[in-house]
Automatic annotation (TrEMBL):
The lineage of its organism: Eukaryota, Fungi, Dikarya, Ascomycota, Pezizomycotina. It comes from the Eukaryota. SUPFAM superfamilies: S-adenosyl-L-methionine-dependent methyltransferases (SSF53335). One of its GO terms (biological process) is methylation. This is S-adenosyl-L-methionine-dependent methyltransferase. One of its GO terms (molecular function) is methyltransferase activity. Residues 1-35 are annotated as: Disordered. It holds the Pfam family Methyltransf_23. InterPro entries: SAM-dependent_MTases_sf.
Length: 367
């Protein structure tokens, strides 16, 4: 298969979900999927200022560069992120990533690592790699594999550190990154030649399997409100749609994009979709509340208005009458091997030429 065909294959829209004709109630065990989620601790090497958390309306927020990110970082949000980690994995048959990185990958960066669940699992799978997770919040566990470390930093400021990486990973960052082209360019600059950037993210709004339901879906309304709120404060909840363009502009090649539909709730056919649906149900049930303050701040809506939208959306999730799904993009791209190699010959040529001139002048001076 040619590279072009492969690329085409990866660009295909997600396979539509088929509705299961059987019962799709969430049942009594809807919460059991999160019962084994581990609790997270703290990373002791970090400066205490990072622990100066902010509190509002019963939720806890990051302290470092306070206000930069609008979703909470408390236990409830950490549980949601760990649950969502499994959703990402299940939807690509258990894989942590799709990029064809070599088994002997050396240096890896996880951007906006959250609880560090991806970072730690990657470090376990690749014991010879040095794996760094960076986040605004020091919410990662204290006991981690020896090849895994965490750092508190704002990835939207200049990456002044010298490290370069073979693999950079970023997941679920649509509510976080305001300058995607800037992030992608920094990732390019900090990748070793031949290294990969992988981004995995949802793209809003949430879809209705029956397009006619869009007119009556409150979840769809919520998605539209999120898009509008994002625009006002510089967040693009449709960013994955533009990744290809930004990756190309930065100089990446071999861009692969795979779109997947996550059913919300167990309404879709096939066992895998049912497991996925139960997990996404729990994820979205909590996520819409976590995102409430963002909507209130950006659109000047009242707490009551947003709460009504949240309650209506939750009722819609529970009812499972409208078959909702979320589009998700898995994308990876490679930094070319020869960006430096192409420049090196011209540098050598210029130097050689200068030396030749200097030698000639020196020879003239001695005659
Ligand atoms: C939705 S969570 C995703 C966490 C993790 N990537 C995952 O998939 O489980 C977004 C994370 O990005 C972090 N974040 C947001 N803005 C950031 C920034 N400017 N610099 C570093 N981390 C940031 C948040 O603290 C949060 O942990």
């Amino acid at each position: 298969m040619s590279a072009r065909e492969t690329e085409h294959e990866h660009n295909r829209p997600a396979t539509p979900l088929e509705t299961d004709s059987g019962p799709s109630s969430l049942g009594d065990d809807a919460d059991s999927a999160i019962s084994d989620i581990k609790s997270t601790g703290r990373t002791e090497s970090l400066a205490s200022s990072a622990y100066a958390y902010q509190f509002k309306d019963g939720r806890r927020y990051h302290g470092y560069d306070a206000g930069v990110y609008m979703l909470p970082n408390d236990e409830a949000e950490q549980d949601r992120l760990d649950l969502q980690h499994h959703v990402f994995r299940i939807s690509v048959d258990g894989k942590l990533f799709l990029a064809p990185i070599p088994k002997d990958v050396q240096s890896v960066l996880d951007v906006g690592c959250g609880t560090g669940i991806w970072t730690i699992e990657f470090a376990d799978d690749y014991p010879n790699a040095s794996v760094l997770g960076v986040d605004l919040s020091p919410i990662q566990p204290a006991y981690v594999p020896v090849n895994c470390s965490f750092r508190v930093d704002n990835v939207e400021t200049d990456w002044v550190h010298e490290e370069t990486y073979d693999f950079i990973h970023s997941r679920a960052m649509v509510a976080a990154l305001k300058d995607w082209p800037g992030f992608i360019q920094q990732a390019f600059d900090h990748l070793n030649p031949g290294g990969y950037l992988e981004m995995q993210d949802v793209s809003f709004p949430t879809g209705c399997n029956n397009p006619e339901d869009e007119a009556i879906s409150r979840v769809r309304d919520y998605g539209d409100v999120m898009l509008e709120a994002g625009k006002r404060i510089g967040l693009d909840f449709e960013a994955p749609e533009k990744w290809r363009e930004w990756l190309e502009a930065a100089g990446f090649v071999d861009i692969h994009m795979k779109w997947v539909n996550w059913p919300i709730g167990p309404w879709a056919k096939h066992q895998k979709n049912k497991i996925l649906g139960r997990f996404t149900y729990l994820d979205f049930y909590d996520a819409i509340e976590a995102a409430g303050p963002l909507v209130i701040a950006a659109l000047g809506k009242t707490q009551e208005e947003v709460q009504t939208l949240i309650d209506d959306s939750r009722a819609e999730f529970k009812a499972q009458k409208i078959r909702l799904y979320q589009r998700v993009c898995f994308c990876y791209a490679r930094k070319p091997e020869n960006t430096q190699e192409e420049e090196v010959p011209s540098v050598i040529d210029v130097e050689a030429e200068n030396k030749q001139i200097a030698d000639l002048e020196a020879a003239k001076a001695t005659t």
